[in-house]
Amino acid sequence: MDLENTKAQMRKGILEYCILSVLSRSSCYASDIIKELKEAEVIVVEGTLYPLLTRQKNAGLLSYRWEESQQGPPRKYYELTDAGRTYLTDLDKSWKELVDSVNLIRTR
Amino acid sequence: MDKTININIAGTLFQIDDEAYRILRDYLQAINNRFKNVQGGHETIDDIEYRIAEIFQSQKGLAGAISKENVEAMITIIGKPGDFDHYEQETSAPTYATQRKRMYRNPDDSIISGVCGGIGAYLNSDPVLFRILFVISAFFGIGFFVYIALWIALPAANSDPKRRDMYGDAYNSVRSQTLQADGTYTTSYQTTSKLGNAFNEIFRAIGKVFYVIFRIFLIIIGISFVLIGFLTILSFVMVFLFKFPGVFSHDGINVHLSYYTDFLSYIVNPSSAPWIIALTLIAIFLPMLALIYWGVKMIFWFKARDGIFSLTGLVLWVLSLSALAIILFNEGISFAETGRTSSQNILTSTPDTIFIITDHKASDQKYDKEFSLPDEDYSLYMSDSTRQLFMPARLCLNIAEQSQVKLEIQKSSCGRTRSDAVKKAELIIYNSRISNDTIFLDDFFTLPAGSKWRADFLTVNLFVPANTVLYFDRQSRNLFHNEINIGKFKDNEEVSSKYDEDTQPWDLADKFWVISENGLKESEKTSLKPK
């Protein structure tokens, strides 16, 4: 078994949840989300994030508006939609259930 | 130092040295390959390009060329496409395979409707060429119709997926986004024309003229459609609902169209008469309503989602026509066979002069409506209270070989079978009597109350020797239907039948006439006295 691969698989499942969680605290730029996720070591390279944002936006979970930046090109400023909030609540619940299940098995 | 290249990433200009440029180009190509066949992939590619510009800017500011190290640092941050985790749902990704193109009208590159712009985008060539082609061929007439056909047949590329289908691989190169003051982006699509705008201005002018002519043409057709539809419906409503035949009664012979509906109840099963009327109205009104709708659409030039509506109308129309056909066929069987009966009466004496007197007259009967059959010279009188029909009897004059005077009454009717028809014919009621030298004839016959009309006819054949003198009273002209026919018989078979050109039925009244093969001649004998 490849440890890195298993870790990548684990991350994969929770990445969408993490993005929504970051945005639930405050609306922010893609680079802010990246910063947080990198600090938490959930992602290694930034390129992983962009297709996910596009997908979540197309699914109606996120919306964005363009913001001028002091230097450089305009940036997308993301925020959760109502549908995104509901979706996140459901994910919160299933995350808790998942953690409980894993703990139950590990402490037996 | 290598030479530097100016590049534009996400709207920002950068200087980049040659080696760095090649690495960046390969990297962008790899990103593009990775995402181009993924749902929303183009947006992701754009996002990554913005991020690349952002990173370069944080590294360098706007001064200095981007080096190989800068590019490699950027790639480490964003990651190689192979390092991206796969999150796409494989099944839901539509693929925009290369060269899969469809022909559309291109509203972003149009003079009239974008047909030529669409052809240009489809064939990856200059729309101006097709515009020239269409204008030239329009002079021969063909181009005009081909253009209209394409206009109707081709859908407009008015959404991004359709544009992508239309431009194919060229999509990204014609598309350009401009940032507006309010922070939103407007997307525009360059024309694929390379011959420039001067040409297009000329075509825009020609196009406007063409469009105006076309609109006037459509408006004229539209107005005539509306008028035809409206007048047809109006006339049907006037004639059948308000019994106001107006223009439909023509020169003297009053064809009482309005009473068709009333007459119908004397022909068919009373329960199916309203159905026939309703279905006929649907069969006529639906196409007329459609005509009015199309006309209004042409005049005001609007688009409507009327597909379901039109289809429902068409189905309804076909159904009502079929139902009408079935009912009419079923009723029509009652007219399948014709049957005849006849009875004869021979006068005991053979007088020189025979008086023909009209006894009962149809016009004296109690009737509500008079209805003329257009072709048959045959007027029906309907009595709605007794449900009875009165029809005109017909008198035919014949010259017989024998010296006796004979009166033959021939009745005919229709039915499902021959015997049915004969039975029907026998039911015809007709009054005639003979008293010495006088024959009393009714000018009409009737059917038992409540009977249906089955194309009933009644003919009175009077056989007299040649040169007999005949007297007709004033009303007897009703017994002739606008003309006098004289038949000649030998051995009980008709050998000739001649139409008397000189004598008209209305001349006969209260006068004595001598009958011969050639017609009726007024008698010179003045001693005779009218009755």
Chart the SSEs and their pairings.
The complex is a heterodimer of chains A (108) and B (531).
Chain A: H1 3-25, E1 28-29, H2 30-39, H3 49-58, E2 62-67, E3 75-80, H4 82-106
Antiparallel strand pairs in A: 1-3, 2-3
Helix pairs in contact in A: 1-4
Chain B: E1 4-9, E2 12-17, H1 18-35, H2 41-60, H3 68-78, H4 115-123, H5 127-138, H6 142-153, H7 160-167, H8 171-174, E3 175-179, E4 185-189, H9 197-241, H10 260-267, H11 273-300, H12 307-332, E5 337-346, E6 353-358, E7 369-373, E8 378-383, E9 388-392, E10 394-399, E11 406-415, H13 418-426, E12 432-435, E13 438-441, E14 444-446, E15 457-464, E16 469-472, E17 485-490, E18 493-499, E19 511-516, E20 519-522
Parallel strand pairs in B: 6-13, 6-16, 10-15, 10-17
Antiparallel strand pairs in B: 1-2, 3-4, 5-11, 7-8, 8-9, 9-14, 11-15, 12-13, 16-19, 17-18, 19-20
Description:
The complex is a heterodimer of chains A (108) and B (531). A three-stranded antiparallel β-sheet of chain A has the order 1-3-2. Chain A has helices spanning 3-25, 30-39, 49-58, 82-106; strands at 28-29, 62-67, 75-80. Chain A is an alpha+beta fold and 108 residues long. Chain A has a single domain (3-107), classed as Orthogonal Bundle (Arc Repressor Mutant, subunit A). Helix content of chain A is 63%, strand content 13%. Chain B is α+β, with helices and mostly antiparallel strands. Chain B has four domains: 4-92, no CATH class; 115-192, no CATH class; 221-334, no CATH class; 336-522, no CATH class. Chain B has 13 helices and 20 strands. In chain B, strand 3 and strand 4 (185-189) form a beta hairpin. The longest helix of chain B has 45 residues, at 197-241. Chain B starts with a strand and ends in a 9-residue tail after the last strand. Chain A binds chain B through residues 8, 11-12, 15-16, 30-31, 44-48, 50-55, 57-58, 65-69, 71-76, and chain B through 10-12, 31, 35, 38-41, 43-44, 47-48, 50-51, 53-54, 57-58, 61, 76-81, 83-85, 87-88, 179, 183-185.
